[in-house]
Design goal:
heterodimer; A: 194 residues; alpha/beta; Rossmann fold; seven-stranded mixed beta sheet; four-stranded mixed beta sheet; globular; B: 251 residues; TIM Barrel; eight-stranded parallel beta barrel; 10 helices; 12 strands; 38% helix
Amino acid sequence: MKVVIVQYNAGNTCSVDFALQRIGIQAVISDNADEIRSADKVIFPGVGAAAPAMAYLADKNLVNVIKKLTQPVLGICLGMQLMCSWSEEGDTQCLGIFDQQVKRFAETAGKVPHMGWNNIYGLQSNLFKELEESTYMYYVHSYYAEKGAHTIATTNYGIEYSGALNKDNFYGVQFHPEKSAKDGQKILENFINL
Amino acid sequence: MLTKRIIPCLDIKDGVTVKGVQFEQMRNVGDPVELGAYYADEGADELVFLDISATDEKRKTFAALVKRIAQHINIPFTVGGGISSVADVHVLLNAGADKVSINTAAIKNPSLLQSIANSFGNQCVVLAIDTKVVNGDWYVYANGGKVPTGIKTSDWVMQAVDMGVGELLITSIDNDGTKKGFAVELTRQISELTNIPVIASGGGGIAAHFADVFRDGHADAALAAGIFHNKELGIPELKQYLKDNDINIRL
């Protein structure tokens, strides 16, 4: 099993790597196109801002590489948002794998960033195998993906939005499975076993 | 629904966990990684590790410890203690910390908060404020609560929010170590002043104190140390109590 974590200017790469090590996976961290294409599973992490992240991917010629991947791909947090069509954060054109747009939480939603443990509902994917409805996951984000046809889990913070997305081989989670205790670890295991 | 968070704090000196009572007398209570993993299993929502040795020589040792923590612990954690530059922050975040807590260095140089927020995002910048009542008003104290700054706590909070701080860790020096309850009114004032999460710290002795600071103080999270380290209050029983009292909590 070859797992590649896409390297870009994102903050949580080593946290994801450590979480994979805890379930016995030695991942490769790389921004090399051939390395990414040759993986059995690709993880696209992310903490940071949308515009510089997309600029980095464009600079490394990774935009089309990621869009054309056929093996399971898991975007985490900003990684998931970058897989959407557009982000209000810096008015950024994203990868367009999911149709959703990414918007900023209204101040009326609650404190921003949405930071802490919140539930996931309406679980509809093997990614959530053996997990119970309304399990808690750890979130840190100020922007969210709207609900839509690709939504496989919902989260509520002022509004209902996409806690997770799936289209074909592409998966995205807004929360941080690498920081979400045992249930988060189970999601990483489920992804590895897809 | 977003839950209230319970955060054990581990003070680290020369790689070992200690707890300051009123910031003075200290005693060892265990290995940071082991203790942190224990709390994560018990249901802690986050952890804070404060390096109170915090000399330049010890900084590298702490970064190595932070890496070990990140490898073994599966919940978010904040690190702090003597952080005074963007470069310090870079080292700690690279080692696997999720957030950094800044205190005295930001009082000396408030723009540091802005530099860190711009470089790494405001979600990872926690401003720690040690505060104490003087003539009926709350004032900021520097250097581990020892040095008065003459700055009003509410003024400092507003300035810090403008600088892009993502979260506030408010320790009442008057309450710390007393086990008589958190500074509920202070916490409520600060929580109403801003739209960023507030962590209440200092004075938590029994489960009811946590309920008070969540319900009446509007705290988003509550931090404690000694009562957890000395096993006076277990995290599972604390969280069950809060749940039974209709406070939204992760069990």
